[in-house]
Amino acid sequence: MAAYILRRLLLVIPTLWAIITINFFVIQIAPGGPVEQAVAQLEGHSSGIMERFSGGGQEVQLDGAGEGEQASGYRGSRGLDPEVVEAIKKQFGFDKPMLERYIDMLKNYATFNFGESLFKGGNVIDLIIERLPVSISLGLWSTIIIYLVSIPLGIAKAIHHGSRFDVWSSAVVIVGYAVPGFLFAILLIIFFASGNYFSWFPLRGLVSADWDQMTWYQQIGDYFWHLALPTLAMVIGGFATLSMLTKNSFLDEINKQYVVTARAKGLDENNILYRHVFRNAMLIIIAGFPSAFISIFFTGSMLIEVMFSLEGIGLLGFESTIQRDYPVVFSSLYIMTLLGLLLNILSDITYTLVDPRIDFEAR
């Protein structure tokens, strides 16, 4: 097992390199990079923005006050001075050839040096760490709730296979699966947070503004109070897949010969189900927990974060992509890919913990 884990860890390196390399060159050739964004700002396409670019002893200042904006004596309708554009390129590091920028990025990422954000200001890793609590909270609690509901439901459906309960519960979870999370979030906001019907839950942030002045138990309550609606919006579509997987896994085990033998020996049905069937049937479900968590963590929260004004990784990645803030985009991709690969290894390890008969060294 140690040799298998070592091989998997070594495979992380070329996998990370391939993903980062493909994304780097695809994004580099896409139109509308950070230089174009800055030029557009200087030309008056964005208002209320102050940017400074220094290059060759020259400073260019933009004050987004309207048509009277000037940059080194320039008015937007006259076109930018080439020296100003070159100063912008130097500020963002685009005065270097693409291959040199690529090599510099690989060197920096090998030492976890992610640089500075082009548009948000501040260190990239600090921005990501600042947003992590929101995304981890949404991903973790959503995954736990989905597992706590889907596993008992799947077992009950397997026991009562073909009954009216099985049919109706399948219909309910499939309808839930068909409802987009953002649409359900809108309904939750309208009914429980907008004040049109009820105003039971907050609409903004992970905690209240006076969170620091609360007692520890009030802080816990306030935290879950803010998480209630966004978490509920995220889990609505997550029950169907896991419930059906649990049901089918139990049905498959229940029909095996060792269960027939146990029944022939006169063992109690609950004893057969929870002492013999449960461990075998739950193997794939329990071992898949790390992958399920990282899947929800990556893909499920961006729209929810936007709708509930939660500053998480999903919203950060979306904003950075729109702004072409390459350091933040590539750093987020790098960290999340690395985390996903490590959790996949953890998932394999979990298989062996749940069922020691599994041996990844077997040929």
TrEMBL record:
Q: What is its main location?
A: membrane
What keywords were assigned to this record?
Answer: Cell inner membrane, Cell membrane, Membrane, Transmembrane, Transmembrane helix, Transport
Record's bilayer topology term:
Multi-pass membrane protein
Give the residue spans that cross the bilayer: 9-30, 136-155, 167-193, 223-246, 281-308, 328-354
Q: Which Pfam families match?
A: BPD_transp_1
Q: Which residue intervals define the domain ABC transmembrane type-1 in the entry? A: 132-347
Transport keyword on record = yes
GO CC, alphabetical: plasma membrane
**PROSITE patterns xref list:** ABC_TM1 (PS50928)
Subcellular location(s): the record lists: Cell inner membrane; Cell membrane
One biological process term in Gene Ontology: microcin transport
Is this entry keyworded Electron transport?
Answer: no
Which function does this protein serve?
A: Probably part of a binding-protein-dependent transport system. Probably responsible for the translocation of the substrate across the membrane.
Family named by the database record:
Belongs to the binding-protein-dependent transport system permease family.
| Name of this chain's protein | Inner membrane ABC transporter permease protein YejB
Q: Which organism is it from?
A: Photobacterium jeanii
Q: Upper lineage ranks?
A: Bacteria, Pseudomonadati, Pseudomonadota, Gammaproteobacteria, Vibrionales
